[in-house]
Amino acid sequence: MIWYLLYPLRGTTEAPVLPPTHPLYSLPARYGRYAARHVVTTLLISAAVATILIYPIPFLFTSDFINGASNLPHHVWTVAQPLSYHAAAEPDIIMRSIWVHAGYMEALNTDLLLSALNLQDELLGMTKNFRPATARGIDAGNVLDDALSLTKRDAFHVANGLTNQSWFFHSPLLYWSCSRERILADQDILMTINDKKNQSTSANVTLRHSIVFSGKRFEDRRLVAADALVITLLHLRDSPVGRQWESRALGLPQKVEGKWDIYPSDGRAARSQLYEFQFRPMSVQDIASLAIAYGLTCLYFLMSLSKLMAVKSKVGLMITITTQIVFSIMSSFTVCATFNIDLSRIPRAAYPVVILAMSLEHIFRLINAVILTPFEESVSNRIGQAFGQTAYTALASTAQNVLILAVLSRLVSQGVSEFCVFAAIAIVFDFFYLCTFFLAVLSVDVRRMELGDALAKAAMKHKRRARDSRNRRSWWDRMLQGKIAMSTRIAGTIIMIGFVLIAQWHFFGDEGILKKLVGLWTGSSLDAENPESSLLEDIHQARSPTSWLRMQDHETAQEVINIIRPSSYSYTARVYEPLVFVLKGSDRTPDSKEPTLLPAAYDFVHHELARFVVIVVVVVAALRLLTNYLLWEDEDDRESNGGPLMSVKSLAGGHRMDIVSVTSSGDGHIVSVSLDCTIRVWSIRGMGTSYVIARGDKAAATLCPVIAMAIDSRSKWLALLSRPKRAEQSTVSFWSLEDRAWGPSVSVSTSAHRPAAFFFDPSTGSDEPRVLIVHADGTLTGVSASTSTESEAIAIFPQSLTCARLGAAKTDHSSLLEESAHASPSATIMAVTRQGNVHMATLENAVWTSQRLAIEGLGESSSHYIDYLQALNLYLVSGSNCVYLVSRHDGSVMQTLQTERMLARPLKCAFSCHQQSGPEIIGLTWFALGYIEADSRDLILHTFLPSQDCDAIYLRMPNDACNSDWCAWESSTQTKKRIVNPGTWDMVPDGSLIGIRQKQLGGGCPDDNGAPGLRNRQVKRGIKEDPFGKWEVWMASPGGRSEADECQRLVEKGEEANHLLITELGPKARVGLNSVAFAFGDMIKLVVLGAAMRLEESEEDQGRDSTLSAAGRRRKGGAGPKGRLST
Fold first, then answer.
1. CA 624, 627, 633 angle in degrees (round to 5)?
2. Is position 363 within any domain?
3. Are 463 and 516 in the same domain?
4. Which of 411, 663, 1037, 1080 has the smallest number of CB atoms closer than 10 Å to its CB?
5. CB–CB of 61/333 below 8 Å?
6. Residues in CB range of 931: below 8 A, 6 or more apart
7. Which stretches of sequence are listed as region Disordered (predicted)?
8. Which residue, 875, 759, 879, is CA-closest to 817?
9. Mean of the per-residue pLDDT values of the chain
10. What pLDDT, on a 0 to 100 scale, did the predictor assign at position 963?
11. CATH number of the domain residue 707 falls in
């Protein structure tokens, strides 16, 4: 509703869509991912809180109001409220009372009871062994007040028949039959009071502690102290007993002024107030209204549930929602009881409906948001994204409803005000359990509903096509989806406000909220004026008369109604302010502040705390075991998603100087070369091992510098292309990763420059490894390890090549875009010249043939970049402001993707294929590009997603027809995420970016403290700035979302001494499916996305970019002295 109220300012009633970077989006999204990854922990937290708040309920609530516990709601409306002074109601009964005080909270002693008995006898006449039934049948006639005998007095008692002259009274002295002898003989006053708490008077009214004592103190469910004895006369309008009480009260001060301080001092109770006491059972209209409310809510719930096709267990979801609402209501009951908030004035059936209506609003919004997330995403990302999208609206709705209830609680009667407090607390607890209990259960259901997602989307497509053939969707369907104004966005609030108004109408009738608002506006109060005299402030009453009246038990009201108006549900009483008698010399100063919480709450802490703690621990432990048993099959998923978003592992101790070249394989091999000609192989599979294959002067003479490296697809062979300084020719050396032994070394006639490409020939087996070299002058040579020879150079490309890539089908023939109608070439090589021309060479019948591709937009005099997507059998070619998808089969452009104006390199790509993709057709569930924008040099993560009504993007030729359930590239949804100062980065197969950068610092440069032209590796003393604090590792998830993004320090504090100071990173290489290796000085920083490293089990991409040596890059300064940072 808040969005409707803000319509004049915002111009729309829709909730705002926050960007992923907004704190109100990113913080809930991060929490949602954490909750989804730690399902058991989240469930245990919610279970612990629920147990803590629900277990005490039997100890805090009771059906017996007198024992210090809170009263449970019944099926009645009850209230004791003052009426306005302007009310013209005729009272049904008149109440007069005296309050007898001694010292503060010292009313329960023998002397005060005897003194109160004297006052009672002065006002009513002798009451010893009071039995009015003995006067039944006596005709009292018309008597004067001063001639009222005890017999005639008893004859007018209500026990002898209801007349306009009837009367009865309440007194604590009735526990002893108003007998002085019995009081004196009682050795334990407190035991008598507690044992006779259910004793009835001759008028059939129970002598509850609430009506005969004021300012009560309870311990262990027993009354232990009271501040005042309350003696109350109730009489009808013409009762002579009432007139006698009034006349005798005027003369009482003169008789007892030596013993008592009396308020008012003249004994005249001049001020009075009309009070209404109700005990109204639920009417047929009430039952029908609640039945309709529950019926409509359940109907909406079931219809909304029927539309959730992707939910694995709808019965389980119903149980979860019911459990959450029960938790919220019971938790609110406990809090209200603890803080002495009386909830017994509203029928118990009304409490759940308001919470149910508002809870469903948040629940279905969250479920629908989860369903709309791509089901190819990880569970934690789906939950995080959905919770980020809905949490701020749920929080705003919760805050709005709590504020509305807070305002209403000041305008309504006391019973309804307490209901408003209960509803506000329950709403807060409902939001808490939504964020913990429901979110955890939902994440488990999402983790197990991948098949349900696919079936749901197929069913949705079928229904959508059926709807498209008809007219627009019905008004009811649009309301259920929350797309029109009368939706769950305001339904919960409307139901809440409506119920409060209905409850107020029950209590006030025509005296409604509107009159209160008018009174507040005009500055005049329409409520009852405060009848209490300021003279009572000095005696420090533990409870004021007004407060005492309002807390009267509803069962007492029912008993009085049965006496004076048997056929009614309420009565009106004129209540005179009490005569207060304070024993002279009494100390009325409170010795301590009275406890603010419910007495039963203190009893619970004193007697049940140890058992309570044990039960909470047992429940949590049992739930832990149960969840481990029920969720054991999701253990792997929880392990993979349960760790940190990103971790950094240091591969140190393998080199003594900077690493200048790195290559890797998909199954966990990393090969690194350093400036001191140390070549090391790292295997990160399992526990991780490493070994040196070359080091020292011998390696420097035969292997260094290394120009290029490559690992074959089976990770059996490593090939090194090197050009020793004193050698006349370059050398290709083979190392067996399987046998850890050198193979042959073959001299090749190549220049000292880096080749355009260096890779293993996919047409040969691992027993006869062969390397292909594409030189910058456009020639192709092959080096065979089995014959130790180099083949003759073949000119297949023009000169001045800048980039070349190999394209080969997988040996298991699992490439999707493999044309079945005709043979596909076994291998192709695509190259781009410095002038921007793209050429593709094809190997057919052992002969390479080349052609220039007619790609529109290329051919400019600028550099371009090529990558190969083996799963799609496509080349990726970068332009100045677009990317081309080129078929490996015939070189045709299958799709042109428009981008920002970008640098030619680096260009990275990741994608996911639809499950129904096959050799003939391919659908992409997402497609991501990573490139550097030319103007800002920011990194752009450009993601293509299917439109909302489609499952995938159809990878097709421009003229092909599109599958009806898939969309064209032109209809896809595009998101762009900008990363400022990306540093060195790479993209992993799930579309996430991983990078390392230096923080941007204002002014100065990294070398300000060093000598010009030298690399100062030693930190100067006295410099407080942490030289490693500026290095940070970051990750970014695909799409416009940033809730899954993370940035952290690269070098942990305390580990600086193990690192060399550097000004820039070395080369990098992707490892496995979720890791990237970065050269950082003399060590490798392996950044792992997720909790554990995932390696490729199948063959590595044949077209992997062979990592070329970084030694050829020009250094910015000479080689200076090296040193490690000392601690």
1. 135
2. yes
3. yes
4. 411
5. yes
6. 878, 883, 899, 900, 902, 903, 906, 907, 908, 939, 940, 942
7. 1096-1127
8. 875
9. 81
10. 56
11. 2.130.10.10
- Same domain for 453 and 549, yes or no, is no
Which of 556, 555, 506 minimizes the C-alpha distance to 74? 555
Judge whether residue 551 has pLDDT over 90.
no
**Sign of the torsion formed by the C-alpha atoms of 142, 146, 147 and 149:** positive
> Virtual CA dihedral for 18, 21, 23, 25, nearest 10 degrees?
50
Final residue in a domain of this structure, among 522, 555, 570: 522
Looking at the structure, do residues 550 and 450 belong to the same domain, yes or no? no
Let me know if residue 136 belongs to a domain: yes
pLDDT greater than 70 at residue 522:
no
Three-point CA angle 762, 763, 768, nearest 5°: 90
Tell me, yes or no, whether 324 and 358 share the same domain. Answer: yes
Cα–Cα distance for residue pair 278/773, rounded to 1 Å:
98
- In the numeric block, which tokens belong to residue 312? 């694995």
**What tens digit of pLDDT does each residue of 1085-1119 get?**
999 987 678 887 644 443 333 333 333 333 333 33
664: its two tokens:
């890797």
Residue 429 belongs to a domain: yes
- Burial tier of 308 (Cβ tally within 10 Å: 0-12, 13-18, 19+): middle
List C-alpha distances in Å: 349 to 296, 354, 360, 415, 1013: 15, 10, 18, 15, 83
For the chain, the domain total comes to: 3
Mean pLDDT of the 223-251 span: 93
What is residue 473's DSSP assignment? P
Q: Are 794 and 748 a contacting pair, CB within 8 Å?
A: no
Quick one: residue 906, left, alpha or beta (phi over 0 = left, psi -120 to 50 = alpha)?
A: beta
Domain assignment present for residue 901? The answer is yes
Omega before residue 906 within 30° of 0, cis: yes
Per the model's pLDDT, the better-predicted residue between 19 and 531 turns out to be 19
- How would you write 973-1020 as a 3-class SS string? EEEEEEECCCCEEEECCCCCEEEEEECCCCCCCCCCCCCCCCCCCCCC
Asked which of 473, 492, 522 is the last residue of a domain, the reply is: 522
Q: Note down the domain range covering 543.
A: 76-279+531-579
Residues 819 and 901 grouped into a single domain: yes
CB environment 558-595: b (16+ within 10 A), e (fewer): bbbbebbeeeebbbbbbbbbbbbbbbeebebeeeeeee
Q: What is the DSSP letter of 434?
A: I
CA dist., res. 453 & res. 951, Å (int) = 11
Using CA atoms, how far apart are residues 329 and 343, in angstroms rounded to an integer? 12
Structure-derived torsion over alpha carbons of residues 866, 868, 874, 879, reported in degrees to the nearest 10: -20
Q: Which two tokens stand for residue 774?
A: 């594409």
3-state secondary structure 212-245: HEECCEEECCEEEECCEEEEEEEECCCCHHHHHH
Which residue, among 427, 441, 404, 436, has the nearest Cα to 325 in the 3D structure?
427
Structure token pair of residue 452: 């349900």
Confirm if 1120 and 1099 have CB atoms less than 8 A apart.
Answer: no
d(CA 970, CA 278): 70
pLDDT of 343 over the 60 cut: yes
End-to-end Cα separation, the chain, in angstroms: 60
Structure token digits, residue 182: 């019995």
CA 222 to each of CA 192, 196, 209, 612: distance values in angstroms, whole numbers, following the listed order: 11, 12, 10, 22
Q: What is the DSSP letter of 748?
A: E
Q: In sequence order, what are the beta bridge partners of 939?
A: 932, 979
**Domain check: are 410 and 488 in the same one?**
yes
pTM here?
0.71
- Specify which residues 1065 forms β-bridges with: none
Where helices occur in 437-532 by DSSP H, the ranges are: 439-447, 450-468, 475-480, 488-508, 513-522
- Within this chain, do residues 960 and 830 fall inside the same structural domain, yes or no? yes
Closest CA to 616 of 50, 40, 43: 50
Do 372 and 250 lie in one domain? The reply is no
